[in-house]
Amino acid sequence: MSAEALSLAGKVAIVTGSGRENGIGAGIAFALARNGAAVTINYVSESSAKRAEGVAQKIRTEGGKATVIRASVNEEGAKILIEGTLKAFGTDHIDILVNNAGVGHIGPTLDLPLNQIRETFAVNLYGPLFMVRAVVPHMPPGGRIINITSTAARMPLAAYGVYETSKAALDYLTAIWAEEFGKSRGITVNSVGPGLVETDIVPSDPEFRKAAVEPIVRMTRAADRPGTIEDIGDTVLLVSSEKGRWIAAQHISASGGVTAL
After folding, report:
1. 45-96 pLDDT, tens per residue?
2. Torsion over CA of 39, 175, 164 and 33, rounded to 10 degrees?
3. Is residue 254 within a helix (H) or strand (E), and if so which, with residue range?
4. Which of 88, 63, 77, 74 is nearest to 13 (CA)?
5. How far apart are the C-alpha atoms of 58 and 74, rounded to whole Å?
6. Sign of the torsion formed by the C-alpha atoms of 184, 185, 186 and 188
7. All domains of the chain, ordered by start, with CATH?
8. Could you give the CA distance from residue 84 to residue 89 in angstroms, rounded to a whole number?
9. Which residues are tagged catalytic?
10. Burial per residue of 114-139, b for 16 or more beta-carbon CB atoms within 10 angstroms, e otherwise
């Protein structure tokens, strides 16, 4: 008897903010595509266009299906993403939505520029809200919504206050949506909270690493290292698969044990 696989064959997925080849979104897209899902790669800025196409091309080279759509996660952009995905894959349904797009403006409440405060909530909180409103009418029973939040939502620090609050609010919405779309539509909703993950947005400056990276590595229980995009991708894969059918309304800390209980 062969071992059961985490197959996503025939599934269609959208991963927002997945246009950087070494970013968390790309790691998630690779994991879903590797297990059979057709995946929409999403990016926003023109400067990321080539990188987003590179993510899709890697998926195609490995035998998977991918399309690339440039759109913001605002009300209009959500419609573009849904309609573009349905057209690209010749389907009438979307099975998996991963709300990964986010911004991480950091600073004390009185010092953070107002435009950065607005952008943080617009992308990190309103973005998933608009995506869910647009995708749920096209999501069949067995659908999966995964919100990428952060361990920061469970570790309040003054300098990260606005960012942490936006992610904590998304965790709260996750539980609301799990009830709203669970029994009525057969859709599970969960959040995955990465800890420190080595991507190109983590500064390489030695002083920063000594002050911010090394302490988190020391707190990590699973291994003496930061996380990788593959660690996060595989966590999302588990929740996205049929094996995750009884996981709902949960914040899953994909941090190597930085947070506990």
Report:
1. 999 999 999 999 999 999 999 999 999 999 999 999 999 999 999 999 999 9
2. -10
3. strand 251-254
4. 88
5. 28
6. negative
7. 12-253 (3.40.50.720)
8. 9
9. 163
10. eeebeebbbbbbebbbbbbebbbebb
